[in-house]
Amino acid sequence: MGYRALVCVVGPLFLILFTIVPYSTALISSPESNPPYPKAISDLKESIVKGFGFQSEEVKISGFDVRDALVGHAVSYEFDLEIDNKVLPFRLLEDVNRWEYVDLPIFHVEQPVGSRDENGVVPVKNKKKSNDVLPVLAPFQLAGPMELWIQDANNMRLSLPYDVDAGVLKKVILADGAVVTVKGARSVSLRHPIDLSLPLNQSSNEFASGLLSLAEQLRRASSSDQETPLLSLRIVGPTSLASTSQSPDNKLKLKRLAPGLVELSSMSKTRSSLSTVDGAMTIVLTPREFTTMWPVTSINGSNANLLGFEKLLTSVLGSKAQEKGSFKVLKADVGAQTYMKIGFGVEKKLKEADLEGLRYPEWRTKPETMRMHFEVLAKVDGEKVIPENVMRVDPIPIEDTVAQNVIAGNVTMSIPMEDTFQPPPSPFTL
């Protein structure tokens, strides 16, 4: 092949490779090739940097690549207790069962009007992204007497046990004995603070837990005392309120009190009894009340979360748990949340003072920078990403490899001639 023919072949081939190679190397993530941060991720990065107290000239932040972000759902519990005029906040989070790569709308970068996207298309206007499917709580049961304030549930079904058209409900009053199953709720919260009296366990039965005793005490006070306000809960986004039993004997009765306000009462209401011992009221729990917790009767007394919170409350109260007194629940919020975890790196220039006290071998070059890897767990709240926890992640350690002659003092090793083995000649050897 002549020189000119070789140029005619190699030239187009080089142009083809030149246009293909940049797209293949773009798959390798680097600080220069990372796509622009969406606003939610940019705000998350800024809040973390401020929390660490880093200065922009001292460190270099990399990562926060939404392509590596993992998304999961879990139930969060938030409580604010007031004990001896001190407010103690508690934040509890269940473990995320499954992490997935999900393309959330907040991961998208808004294209300004008139600009071109990666495909060269000019958008006419910014499209409003559709909301992601919000996580919901598992179905749970609520028992009266209490009131429910419904929020963001224009299409909520009411089944008693047959569907009833009650219009758009804003408030539902559950009479004593009425029990409903709530489905599709995103969160449940306490609307008004409540007072709970001590000691923690006031039940006459030694097998009843302290929280069950407090809950039953509050229920009986709401049932018998007209001056005690009803327990009031706010439920966000329920899809249905249904009778817990399909039997006609246990169906609920509907009473319309005002537009958007109804009262549900049980046809077969059962009453418990109170007994008095030495002039003091003692709560007598029925077998069902030993295992269920009012007002959430679907929670069993042996529930791991319930037992764990009771142990935590006992440790906080200390000796006051068995003394006369009271404490107040200022806030109680249980909600299904979307969480995200994403990794990032921090590179910091080292100074001479940072290397003092560190013993490095003479043959090893002292580092000029220090690299650290972190992982942030954040809560997705609408268009915002709120950091909850930042953990340092240790990458796979790199082991130092030293040549054998360096260990032996740079001495050349040779094999003695008498140990050399010469194979017999082969007639097929050329």
From TrEMBL:
Cleavable signal peptide: 1-26
Source taxon at top rank: Eukaryota
Keywords: Signal
InterPro entries xrefs: TUNICAMYCIN_INDUCED_1 (IPR053283)
Protein name: Uncharacterized protein LOC104742588
Organism name: Camelina sativa (False flax)
